[in-house]
Give the backbone structure.
Amino acid sequence: MNKIYFLIVAIIFFNSCSTKKVDKADSNIETKVDSVLAMLSIDEKVGQMNQLSSFYNSDPDGLKAMIREGKVGSLLNEVNPDVVNELQRVATKESKHGIPLIIGRDVIHGFKTVFPIPLGQAASWNPALVEKSSHIAAIEARSKGVTWTFSPMIDIARDPRWGRVAEGYGEDPFLTSTLGNAAIKGYQGNNLSANDRIAACAKHFAAYGAAEAGREYNTVITSNQELRNVYLKPFQSASHTGAATFMAAFNEINGIPCSGNKKLLTDVLRNEWGFKGFVVSDWASIPEMINHGFADNETDCALIAANAGVDMEMSSHTYLDNLANLIKQGKISETVVDNAVRNILRVKFQLGLFSNPYVDTVKSSFAADSSLIIAKELALESLVLLKNENNVLPLSTKIGKVAVIGPMSNDRYEQLGTWVFDCDTNTTVTPLSAIRATIGNNKVIYAKTLAYSRDKNTGRFYQAISAARSANAVLVFVGEESILSGEAHGRAHIDLPGVQADLIKELHKSGKPIITVVMAGRPLAISNILPYSNAVIFAWHPGTMGGTAIADVLFGKENFSGKLPISIPVSAGQCPIYYAKKNTGRPADYNSWIPMDKIPVRAPQTSLGNASQHLDDGFEPLFPFGFGMSYTTFEYSNINLSSPSISVKDTLVISATITNTGKFDGYETPQLYTHDVVGSITRPVKELKAFQKIKIKSGESVNVTFKLTASDLAFYKSWNEEVVEPGLFYVWIGPSSNQGLKAQFTLQ
Ligand code: NOJ
């Protein structure tokens, strides 16, 4: 390999925060922060670093007493605005220094109005909509007194056994960074003190999505390069975008728990990326360092976490119990605590809490019509059409009778997904009600058949079969209940739970068109139902307006535009599986793959099929990242590069023509991928570098243009060395990660 390496110091690209001039507002805030800090005793400083889960309902006086004594900097899980106002009154009027509280809540995909789960939002590939939905969540949450959300989750997740795959934006660092930034902008806007904005929290820092086998809270073992090039990428971007807070993850990375990881929290986040907000631990993740086997006792935990750079402790109280003594004993410098408190006070000032900590309890606008419109649009754009045999969809509204079957067809709660503490199921529109509204009550034969997704009782199958026989099309709504994904809800088998697949097989025998709609918190391995379904829609957990969005595409009022933000595996045994894999020394293809059943009995040991694959499930996912069909068809042609070769200072322009060759207008999402053919460390076979979402009318052609610069091709070859290496690159513009027009260029 005779390449020259161009070292690009990461700071040049991303650290504009630390180099940009501190503007007047910032410097005013810094002065105020310093003047508050100067008044505080050590105990009061430590109090600011303490976040408790509200126990107002069980012991209001106890909680008020702690706040009055300056022992609480933040509360989570208090969403009663009257209580919030009362506690803010105690904090600002009855505590010695009058420091307001910052109130946190898991506002993950909406507050009252529930948007699709983040993984569903990612399937929209529409940052503008993600931003709008986060803004609505902020409006609703702030009107209840919540000023801080623990969102977005920007953990790259490549193993859908992990339950929290639902909470993030999928497997790809570029897509996740783009949508994570959109969410941050939606929550925070340009002015955190506005009464429609809240502080965001980039979580879980870091690499939580790489937990072994998708087992929750588990160990992460990864290389420095993988950390930098994959898992840290969205966080670097979030810091650059100005996320007000970060959350340290539960997991360890290569033996160091994130809550005690100075390299991550201080060296990278503060010193390299110039992060100015504050870092909160995860729930009791500081004392959990004892279980990790990283600390002996809670005092050590507090010492390690504070020194590492965790500014605020969530729910546990190792800081409250130990930090002041540790300072008095000279074991930790007061500067560490001062810096943490500065970071916290800065965000409180930015939120305007010192000027007005209260909420107007009269003015709350929940599920406003305008919010429901965005919830519907985002749900619509999150729907991914995976199969549409003989264009069975869209259905005509004059189809006559349809059967609506399955546990997810009319459940106002289960279609909302994980983390919906504050949801209002009264506003949920289910598929059944939307289908009835679309074609008329008397045209719908409803047979729920299974009480819930895990129900194993086949005793009511006869109802579904009879409904199918009397109908012209069968709409089956299956999936996972909300509780089967999200925190602590990993699954070893990721197919449809219970007897839902059996139900679909039975219905298929009716000979009627079977349209399967899957609502789930993860990409389920649905290979066993594909042959028995004429059409398949992946709907994730689509939220409040999911039913309307689904009915609109089923009956052709709207077209599909969703694309997978994560590969759908054939089986759990394939996981982790993702498009940006390494080629290996023996890449598999259809020539090399010998399916297991084709191996003769007593075949002698041979090198037959000796490539990187599974004998049973092959080497490809069931559906690849970026894939999603439409009612129309798009043809890609004429890939063109502005030059066959560029220098590190040039911009390469890559374009292609996309023609809508079908009968429907539709949105297409052209994706730009590159491959660095030879690297000083091996490079993924493809990496997403850009995408657009564009409307193309039936019969119309558009020219799409992407720009690439050397910095887009940079990668970390080691922890501290980010390089752009000259040589040959392949580039694709295509409709998914495994299709597209290919060209090449060289970087000199
Ligand atoms: C634990 C979860 O890991 C985190 O994502 C969440 O924000 C906190 N609990 C607070 O509920």
Summary: The chain has three domains: 2-350, 384-554, 634-747.
